[in-house]
Design goal:
By secondary structure, the protein is α/β, with parallel strands linked by helices. It has three domains: 162 residues, Rossmann fold (3-Layer(aba) Sandwich), CATH 3.40.50.720; 112 residues, no CATH class; 70 residues, no CATH class. It has ten helices and 21 strands. The strands form six sheets. It has a seven-stranded mixed beta sheet. The protein has a five-stranded parallel beta sheet with strand order 12-2-1-14-20. Strands 5-11-6 form a three-stranded antiparallel beta sheet. Helix 1 links the parallel strand 1 and strand 2. The relative contact order is 0.21. The C terminus is likely disordered.
Length: 383
């Protein structure tokens, strides 16, 4: 049996490895380099990725799988957001201990007390105001979200429960994603050794897929954008991307303590700055930082609206039985590394009819329910 994999990120390389290990002949098409946005590059000796690609999740089994291939250094993790109006940094998720330091503290506490979560919010803005009040929403979320997504009004989002970082208002320690497995590879090459390991025994072809391309495979697994896979026959799905500016500063450390990157919620054009040696633990007398500015030049973040998810569902249902679409771009989901790996394992089980090697662990993480019910032709031919 032969399989063709389109795309060499976490989803593509993982499913390629599982199939190859099961005795399949596997070829993987990748137009640039293995790893996609999670690939490590170097500048001035400093390792970095285009965006902070931390490993983050709650499944012990998935963490152990990744850690067995590339050891992960776990570390405490804090986020800071710069609020231009207040000319200061605060913790994010919003921490209740920061509220007394805010100029509008009395008003904020009143809005929190009066917040009404009893009704179902109709959009992103209403969701947040119901949880933290108008003042905190404007301070931390409103302008940041409009900048990040390059939109005029947050009300365009009618799917929104993914947006809060675990809690709308945090208490206790300032650690983000409490109770999760969070960290980054010990190896200075980051995740690169994972991708290399996954394609051992796999034929990697430097090739860009174009709608209508034929393969001589029994099965195709695609991780490229689902609308691109299908030749945009139902219309194009929107994304927002990032422009990245990499620079090195003459300082051993820029960010304090366990702060590894900062968000910017005001009128400045950028959304995030990451200090990479706080993630990679690279030893150097200077420090590399990466600044991110929203852009339409690449496809990184899907616009999660009901209309876009309905269009995605239509695309997925149109795929032939032997064509599978997984990963962030393949399912049009805001997926983590953990969720993407889960999708690869579930796809392997679906293709082979064998038990999922991690069955019984995930409780809906990495949902692949939209992979079911295919009827129409996608335009992709597998012979």
């Amino acid at each position: 049996m032969k399989a063709t994999i389109l795309g060499g990120g976490f989803a593509g390389t993982t499913v390629a490895h599982l199939l190859q290990r099961d005795g399949w002949q596997v070829e993987l098409w990748e137009k640039e380099h293995l790893g996609g946005g999670c690939r490590t590059f170097f500048q001035g000796g400093h390792p970095f990725t285009y965006g902070p690609r931390l490993y983050y999740g709650y499944s012990e089994k998935v963490f152990k799988w990744v850690d067995s291939i590339i050891p992960i250094r776990r570390f405490p993790f804090e986020l800071r957001t710069y609020v231009e109006k207040d000319s200061r940094f605060y913790s994010y998720p919003i921490h209740q201990d920061d509220i007394p330091q805010m100029p509008e503290a009395v008003q904020i506490w009143r809005e929190i007390r009066e917040a009404d979560n009893s009704k179902e919010p109709k959009d992103f803005e209403e969701y947040w105001i119901q949880r933290v009040g108008r003042t905190l929403y404007d301070k931390f979320v409103n302008f940041y979200s409009r900048k990040m997504w390059m939109i005029e009004d947050n009300k365009v989002f009618d799917i929104f429960k993914w947006s809060a970082k675990d809690k709308a208002i945090e208490t206790g320690t300032r650690e983000a994603y409490k109770g999760s497995y969070i960290g980054y590879p010990v190896n200075l090459h980051g995740y690169n050794p994972y991708f290399d390991r996954m394609v051992e025994g796999v034929e990697v072809v430097r090739k860009t897929y174009k709608a209508g391309d034929e393969t001589k495979s029994d099965v195709v697994v695609s991780t490229i954008p689902i609308d691109e896979l299908c030749g945009y026959k139902f219309g194009e799905l929107p994304y927002v991307g990032r422009d990245f500016t990499v620079f090195i500063l003459p300082s051993r450390q820029v960010f304090p303590g366990d702060v590894r990157f900062c968000h910017y919620a005001g009128s400045e054009p950028h959304t995030r700055i990451t200090e990479f040696k706080k993630i990679t633990y690279y030893e150097s007398p200077d420090s590399l930082l990466v600044l991110e500015t929203p852009s339409k030049r690449n496809k990184l973040y899907p616009y999660l609206t009901k209309a876009n998810m309905a269009l995605t569902d239509r695309y997925l249902k149109s795929l032939p039985e032997n064509v599978h679409s997984i990963g962030r771009l393949g399912t049009y989901k805001y997926s983590t590394i953990e969720q993407t790996i889960v999708q690869a394992f579930e796809c392997f089980a679906k293709i082979t009819g064998k038990p999922n090697p991690m069955d019984g662990e995930f409780f809906g993480i990495g949902d692949t329910s939209m992979m079911k019910g295919r009827k129409e032709s996608s335009g992709l031919k597998s012979t």
